[in-house]
Amino acid sequence: MHYLCSMSEDTYKTIVAPSEGIYTEKRSKFIAIALPVRTVEEVKAHLETYQKKYYDARHVCYAYMLGHERKDFRANDNGEPSGTAGKPILGQINSNELTDILVIVVRYFGGIKLGTSGLIVAYKAAAAEAIAAATIIEKTVDEAVTFLFEYPFMNDVMRVVKEEEPEIQEQSYDMDCRMTLRIRQSMMPKLRARLEKVETLRFE
């Protein structure tokens, strides 16, 4: 597992790219795939792909977590005894404080039953392997602000932009100049306060 950066309130952790892990127990093989996702639609598309790819597997279980507030999540046992698959997978996502992630664990049955506790251990271990193989990055929670101002005050606006270093997302220069800036959430109050002091500037 590779960590880049440390956490603060307006940041969240996710994975950069797909990663895999494999766990074997009593001839049952558990293949885990961790995938970066942003929406439920992406989750559904990935599930469809992997269910087709592993069509001959006994179970394709999964859990996902979405959004920087980590409130949109789901765990699915896909026919395994309740709470033995999706929940331990989700547990690994939570223990690593990850979001915008889908972890799928595919099980090929080896002929020997593992029992409830054995299944929980196996799904947890497989998910942990996939996450351990991933590169985890910290992203900032950003906000955007759009405003108008008169052209003669362009230098005042650009001075603020240069010093506060927001990303310029959009700009147009007509009778009124219009600009959209994006910056991390914790830095937005200071940016807005400085922009408010620019003559003729008004927020949309």
From TrEMBL:
Protein name: Impact N-terminal domain-containing protein
Record family assignment: Belongs to the IMPACT family.
SUPFAM superfamilies per record: Ribosomal protein S5 domain 2-like
Biological process terms in GO annotation: regulation of translational initiation
Annotated InterPro entries: Impact, Impact_N, Impact_N_sf, Ribosomal_Su5_D2-typ_SF, UPF0029_Impact_CS
Pfam families referenced in this protein's UniProt entry, alphabetically: Impact_N
Coiled-coil spans in chain: none
Source organism: Bacteroides uniformis dnLKV2
Xref: Gene3D superfamilies: Impact, N-terminal domain
PROSITE patterns: UPF0029 (PS00910)
GO CC annotations, alphabetized: cytoplasm
